[in-house]
Amino acid sequence: MQAEYSAFIASAYGISAVAIAALFAWILFDARAQRRALRSLDARGIRRRSQASAAGSASEAGQ
Amino acid sequence: MTDVPASAKPSRFSILANPTRFLELSGRLQPWLYGAALIALTIGLFLGLTAPADYQQGSTVEIMFIHVPFAWLSMMIWTVMSISALGTLVWRHPLADVAVKAAAPIGAVFTALCLITGSIWGRPMWGTWWVWDARLTSVFVLFLMYLGLIALTRALDEPGKSARSAAILVLVGFVNIPIIKFSVDWWNTLHQPASVLRVGGPAMPAAYLTPLLISALGFTLLFFALHLTAMRTEILRRRVAALSRLAARRAEA
Asked: What span, in angstroms and rounded, lies between the C-alpha atoms of B202 and B45?
């Protein structure tokens, strides 16, 4: 009885594990990609106003 | 409305409306959610896989400990999106559309897994991989709606532009959720009727009910952890898009 069904049970758990791992990896890589894009924008001096006023208030005051 | 003093402390709801504050809070909450999900899933699935074989279904009952949580999640995620859709349409909450867009792919994966694990369970127990009965068909329709929503929320270049239409699609699609839940009562289905959330209490011995509830809790926590991560990423994506536009304008000037 047990052995007869073990392939069904193993494939149900296996497919689920692979799909959830892939979803997790995709969400993680997407998060990294956006953080990297923000960093590279920041390196080019393109910041949000709220951060620019904190980081570059001196340069803004000069304008 | 007008008697609220301007100096009144903002409610928690409106504090969360500030994406920067949300990023801060969710960043602190995130590792705890993932940790709790891992613990609950380990305990739930261990208890489930060591539970005695069912007298009718044999060891295939082990599929229940993932199939039922996936089914529950497929409906809960659409419900979470429906509440968020109200947030978009009624309160214009800035994070509501972010929540809808981030939840859709996660919901699609869990719904697909619900269909796949159900099919694998159906083959040895029903003698067929698939039948077009009311329960299976209505869940399949839910899966297609997730795919449609993913396409809609990602069709436009500017993130967030599809917010209104996505919210309306989510609310219209919510009609399907009670249809899925009660399909086994309203129609003659090959799928068995409810055995946990039913009038008269769960019809299941504790040896199955306990691992099922713990594993359902684990998968629910996993969804909220993944959803939080995806929402944070979506906020960052919108910042990247806004800053890129700013950079392009500066380059033109």
From this structure: 19
Q: Looking at B64-194, list the stretches that DSSP marks H as alpha helix, in order from N- to C-terminal side.
A: 64-86, 96-126, 134-154, 163-173, 176-186
C-alpha–C-alpha distance, residues B2 and B252, integer Å = 44
Could you tell me the two tokens for B74? Answer: 């497929």
Amino acid present at B28: R
Instruction: Write the single-letter amino acid at A35.
Output: R
C-alpha to C-alpha distance for B60 and B125, rounded to whole angstroms:
8
Q: Could you tell me the two tokens for B216?
A: 């359902």
Q: Is the pLDDT of residue A60 over 50?
A: no
Q: A-B interface: how many C-beta pairs under 8 angstroms? A: 92
> How many CB atoms sit inside 10 A of residue A63's CB?
4
ipTM for the predicted complex comes to 0.88
| Sign of the Cα pseudo-torsion (B124, B125, B131, B137, in order) | negative
Shortest distance between the Cα of B244 and any Cα of chain A, in A, equals: 8
Tell me the residues of chain B between 87 and 116 that have a Cβ less than 8 Å away from chain A: 105-106, 109, 112-113, 116
Q: Give every CB contact of residue B93 below 8 A, 6+ residues apart in sequence.
A: B17, B84, B87
Burial class of B108 by CB neighbour count within 10 A (0 to 12, 13 to 18, 19+): buried
Report the share of chain B in percent with pLDDT over 90.
Answer: 64
pLDDT, residue A63, reads 35
pLDDT band of residue A17 (cuts 50, 70, 90) is very high
Which residues in A lie closer than 8 A to residue B66 (C-beta atoms)? 12-13, 16
Q: Is the separation of the CB atoms in B153 and B100 below 8 Å?
A: yes
Cβ proximity of B88 and B96 under 8 Å: yes
Q: What is the mean pLDDT of residues B12-18?
A: 69
SS3 B60: helix
